[in-house]
Amino acid sequence: MADQTATSFVTYELKGKVAHIGLNRPEKRNAISDRFVEMIAESVARAESEAKAVVLFGHGDHFCAGLDLAEHVKKTPIQGVHGSRRWHAVFAGIEHGTIPWISALHGAVVGGGLELAASTHIRVADRSAFFALPEGQRGIFVGGGGSVRAARLMGVARMTDMMLTGRVASAEEAERWNLAQYVVEKGQAREKAHQLAEAAASNAEISNYAVINALPRIQDMAKEDGLFVESFIASFTATSPEAEERLRAFLEKRAARLKTPGSA
Ligand code: 1HE
User: Which residue ranges does UniProt annotate as crossing the membrane (predicted)?
Assistant: First the structure.
């Protein structure tokens, strides 16, 4: 096995309500092996049990160089299918879990690394980040949900271009392409992601759950079905005890006002 030497490929630290989960195999550019995927799964479960939001980042100079190609080269077709389905299950636990995940991206956000980032809810890239899908060059295909999640973010035309030509996108291009929601200076992504995670963690849990779980599903529904489902989620959340308290706090002027553009 290519990855037997390290004891843990994932670091975990709870900072207040926000779990910081670090991809920690920098000597292999955080390439994800089978064992690494299971460690991500463990950290997802732990964060769900005690955190209100997560910051996902990479140790070393890169976020993640994707699939561990050394391990993959030895797989049979059916092992490949099982491996891909396992990535799907673990990444679905992020995308359709109970708490918001913010990824802090720097260096390589490549192949499976981009697929992992695409399963988080908000992506913050620093100016060192670069995005690529070199699967075509390696003779393989995306297998970590990229054809579904990354394609929905940037569109099939851009993803086709990246996969056919090996095009590498900068952080600024990635923001224009909707692969990143924020671009910050080099070294600032984790701090920005933490601020965003704290903001999200202060929301009503039920609203966050609805945003994470309902929005992507409604996007896949027919218009009328989406509107129908929305009305139930709107009513269910608005009639929760937490909503009542938060609405009262606003009306009684106990809640913070929105920060308007230009305000500190
Ligand atoms: C790896 C991997 C990896 C690095 N699997 N070992 N992903 C790729 O095709 C990206 C491949 N990686 C790279 O292009 C470069 O490594 C980077 C641009 C990310 C970084 O370059 P650099 O110069 O900092 O590092 P390096 O010297 O290329 O790599 C350092 C070590 O990490 C080296 O091992 P060493 O034993 O010779 O020191 C590399 O072999 C190793 N390494 N990336 C295994 N990916 C679920 S389907 C998803 C499909 C995909 O993800 S396809 C995209 C795969």
Answer: none
